Protein: protein-glutamine gamma-glutamyltransferase
Organism: Delphinapterus leucas
Amino acid sequence: MSGLQSVDWQISLNEQAHHTDKFSSQELIVRRGQLFYMSLTVYRCLDCNRSATFTASTGPYPSESAKTKAVFPLSNRISGTGWGAQLLHNNNNVLSISILSPANAPIGRYTLSIEISSEGNDSTTQLGTFILLFNPWLQADSVFISNHDEREEYVQEDAGVIFMGRTSYISTIGWNYGQFEEGILNICLSLLDNSLNFRRDPATDVARRDDPQYIGRVLSAMINANDDYGVVSGNWSGNYVGGQDPRNWNGSVEILKQWQISGFRPVRYGQCWVFAGTLNTVLRSLGIPSRVITNFNSAHDTDKNLSVDVYYDPRGWPMDKGSDSVWNFHVWNEAWFARTDLSPSYSGWQVLDATPQERSQGVFQCGPASVVALREGNVDWDYDMPFIFAEVNADRTTWIYNAWTGGLKKNSSNTHTIGKNISTKAVGSNSRMDVTENYKYPEGSSQERQVFEKALGKLQPSMSLHATSTRIFREEREPSISGNFKITDILTVGKEVNMALMLKNLTGDSKTVMVNMTAWTIVYNGTLVHEVWKESVSLSLGPNEEIQHPVKIAYALYEKYLKADNMIRATAVCEISDETEVVVERDIILDNPTLTLEVLDQAHVQKPVTVQILFSNPLDELVKDCKLIAEGSGLMLGTLKIDMPNLRPREQSKVDFEILPTRSGTKQLLVNFSCNKFSAIKGMLPIKVVE
């Protein structure tokens, strides 16, 4: 008979002390390097003739040499920094015990057992399991973050906002990270067990889970479904049949649960912010401080020459030539931890990117790349530095390609349009914090160009510095005209797009300009969906004259082809006597109608409260297939889906539904409205919940 009667894991006391009390779990969740307490009731008291030894182990092949198994005695005091157990009290056969794990123990689910020896009789009893996480509160842990407010934001905050749009028109969507929701931590642990590394060599993989750098890289591969049993399948085609339009997701919880329920089949579909939002959930869940970053005018440089090439034909058509591209915005993550492989000054924020763009060591994974090292142009370091450096620093070169003659002409080169307004959510509020200066020296400064030269020299050592500078600073022939598209009216889905092409003669001679214009609906990464308008016109410009030529694109022309991105790209190729002078382009974003959200009473924990949503159909036609999806961690369990009636032209609709808050504090309710004419209209409401 075993000497053990019962075990008390003292869950609420431990989880309060370990900052894990927000998790909804029946299992003990603690952080490494910090004491936790338990009490054991034994049949016979421990005395000088009886001793006890604990074994803690994790993974399928625990071993002491790999640090995935530890055997340690119950003693009167804990010494050292390894595993240890101390007997605090022993009264009436109830033993109060404290247990310490090392600050660099592998994280994961552990099994704890006790062996009681008495006069040559040994009995071993399984005490059960507990989960060990990273500890950002502990200085000895490599994820330690000293600032209290930052820890609260980057580890404990379960909702946030992600920035999107374009440089001059930055918009915000809410995202429910939901890392404490029931079952999410288990899914995050099973993510690690589905990785290629674990499948190849489980013993080594589990042993390496002591290192946030290793785990971050594994997760950057696992959040996309490209090479493994990963979570989300990416799709930028504009056609999302067989899955969900990426714009419809409100958060990660639904995605992670769907992945698990389907037996780890990829969830369809995601784009960059979906990958980043989901990775953020998993990092925070495991205790690695993390945040979501948006880079505007993000370069996708496939050939490591720090230049992205964009092609047009003489008719003004954008061409899918070459594999480089510029995304209106791209979203990735930063995780906070020490870089033990580099000098200490490169610790802190590290870029991780789960969006599958390029292979790294044969797998679609990216990072961790030290933000400080990126700023210094150390592109020869681990991991994936050249790719990320180019995303924020590449030059953008426009070419005119004539398919008839096969001729290729460089039209312009711009050294300062890539990598703008790099943004993240501010600590403690939903406002935008600009972190561009973390990634690069001020645009146009001498340091910024020096870093660029240094990086280019490392990537293409064959190019001498002289050749480099001529590549960048080679004088373009000055064009004789300049142009831009000016918006002349508000831009709203359902309305005509009104712009003007502004052309200015920069010389004292009269000019005749042949202008070929096109407009395409696009996805935010530049994928062309459909041409919706074109016009060719000959314009006369007197000496130094500026004129404006009106451009009107009717709703009927674009309505069928507009994607949830609501983006249209207009281009004008302007020629004077068969020489292309300038290429004018502008991406515009059309506004959706708004959802109005209101909570009709003070919200209390465990008391139903009604939320009201108002929506007006702005169109002169019927809208149908109307659906609402609502979610919010701490406000409701799971996701609420509501089918709504059709809306007549200009009709207003009102929907009431109940939520049942489960936790106090300010919580974020997220709503997505979709119908046959609007594929993703977002609403977000902060709700203050009191006890």
